[in-house]
Amino acid sequence: MKAYMLAFVRVNDLETFNKEYIENAVPIVQRHGGVTVAVDENPLTIEGTVPEGRVVIVEFPTKVAAEAFYNDPDYQAIKAWRQKVSQSDSIILEKGF
Question: Can you give the residue ranges of the DUF1330 domain (predicted)?
Fold first, then answer.
């Protein structure tokens, strides 16, 4: 069953974020079968309060693959770059109706 990683990201230094994090994270995502479904800097909130900033949705073939990406030692090594220049809240979604 497909799984989706949903991240709300507030970037403080976009240049460093893109160069040090995105360029290195994307190949790791792909290695685990992940595909970026959507990235939006200004999502339209239709109800409630959503954290400001970028929203990212990444599709993985399974929840296990999504967790394997997040726990991958290569990803853990670059996660520190993301944490230096941004704050984020992330979840993995799996089941539908």
Answer: 2-94
Residue 80, pLDDT > 80, answer yes
- Computed over every residue of the chain, the mean pLDDT equals 94
Q: Read off the pLDDT of each residue in 88-92 and give the average, rounded to a whole number.
A: 96
| DSSP one-letter string for 29-94 | HHHTT-EEEEEESS----SS---SSEEEEEEESSHHHHHHHHH-HHHHHHHHHHHHHEEEEEEEE-
Using alpha carbons, list the distances in angstroms from residue 90 to 5, 13, 39, 87. Answer: 7, 19, 14, 10
67: pLDDT strictly greater than 90? yes
Q: Which domains does the chain have, with CATH numbers?
A: 3-94 (3.30.70.100)
